[in-house]
Write a structure and sequence with these properties.
13% of the residues lie in helices and 38% in strands. It is mostly beta strands. It folds into two domains: 118 residues, Cupredoxins -  blue copper proteins (Immunoglobulin-like, Sandwich), CATH 2.60.40; 141 residues, Cupredoxins -  blue copper proteins (Immunoglobulin-like, Sandwich), CATH 2.60.40. It is globular, with a radius of gyration of 22 Å. The chain binds copper (II) ion (CU). The site of copper (II) ion has 7 residues, from loops.
């Protein structure tokens, strides 16, 4: 009897340990550190410079990619050499705007954790005052929360993945009142540069997105404009799937154009014809934005770079 009871205890303990171990494997903690950098960046292909405010010196900041259920252990460093306070607002987080998202003064560091409970594609940005100016000057990026169920018929595995983040360019960097009034809106930045991936309209452009004919290309798109929605359209193509907010449950099929609100993000799938080489121009079909720089060429060709749009190459720099 005594022996049986102790065996039962051992067995129950083993089951509890096994359950704990499987949870520990599934939900991981991801450490993410960013440094607010007030620095000069190039905002076009010919090297025009701009006094940006950034996460880690680049527009957009680095991609944060986790799986649904993961804990993000985040640290924001605001070096004492900066002039401004900065902050972090992850749209994937459900926390306290006056707590986790509060501004960090120069010379200080902020640390917080949150669980990415909902799958999707989400903007992140600085929310320090004046927020319009902090976003327009470049403090934004994307966090991708992959669904814990993985891929399915409804949410097929893509052959290539790219991130495109669109922002508004205001050359008068100190004029935040103008920015809020949409005055001086001179350019549309795609991943930090006007006509970044458009050698058709900009002879100085040298980069494009690439895939092989017939591949499924998934574009994670973020509208980081401060005032303007984006009419997101693949010229000479059709969105095979649009996953609103990047959630596999929010799926639309066979879409020409999807209107992306300010601060909205989503996943957009395009599958090119398999029997020939083609090109798409992925645009903000709002002409004032397209002609200010929001045009991206996707080349679908048999000799596409095998590394493009794979692994850590989601942002073409
Ligand atoms: Cu900031």
């Amino acid at each position: 009897m005594k022996k049986n009871r102790s065996m039962l205890t051992v067995t129950t303990g083993a089951i509890a340990l096994a359950m704990f171990a499987s949870q520990a494997v599934q939900a991981k903690t991801v450490h993410v550190k960013m440094v607010a950098k007030e620095t000069t960046v190039e905002i076009d292909n010919k090297g025009t410079t701009y006094p940006a405010w950034t996460f880690d010196g680049a527009i957009p900041g680095k991609i944060v990619r986790v799986t649904e259920g993961d804990v993000i252990d985040f640290e924001l460093v605001n070096p004492k050499t900066n002039k401004e306070s900065h902050s972090m607002d992850f749209h994937a987080a459900e926390v306290d705007v006056l707590g986790e998202f509060a501004a960090v003064k120069p010379g200080e560091t902020k640390h917080f954790k949150f669980t990415a409970k909902r799958a999707g594609v989400w903007m992140y940005h600085c929310g320090a005052s004046v927020m319009a100016q902090h976003i327009a000057r470049g403090m934004y990026g994307v966090i991708i929360v992959d669904p814990k169920e993985g891929y399915s018929k409804k949410f097929p595995k893509p052959d290539r993945e790219y991130v495109l983040v669109q922002g508004q360019y205001f050359p008068d960097a100190d004029n935040y009142k103008g920015m809020i009034a949409n005055e001086g809106y001179a350019g549309s930045l795609i991943n930090g540069k006007m006509f970044h991936y458009d050698p058709v309209h900009d002879p100085d452009a040298s980069l494009v997105l690439q895939s092989k004919p017939g591949e499924r290309v998934r574009i994670y798109f973020v509208n980081a404009n401060i005032n303007e929605p984006v009419a997101f359209h693949p010229i000479a193509g059709i969105w095979d799937r649009v996953f609103i907010n990047g959630n596999p449950e929010n799926v639309l099929e066979d879409m020409a154009t999807y209107n992306v609100a300010v601060s909205e993000a989503g996943a957009f799938d395009i599958v090119s014809p398999a029997d020939r080489a083609t090109n798409n121009a992925i645009v903000d079909h709002t002409m004032k934005a397209a002609l200010r720089g929001a045009i991206t060429v996707l080349m679908n060709k048999p000799d596409a770079d095998p590394a493009a749009g794979k692994g850590d190459n989601l942002i073409v720099r």
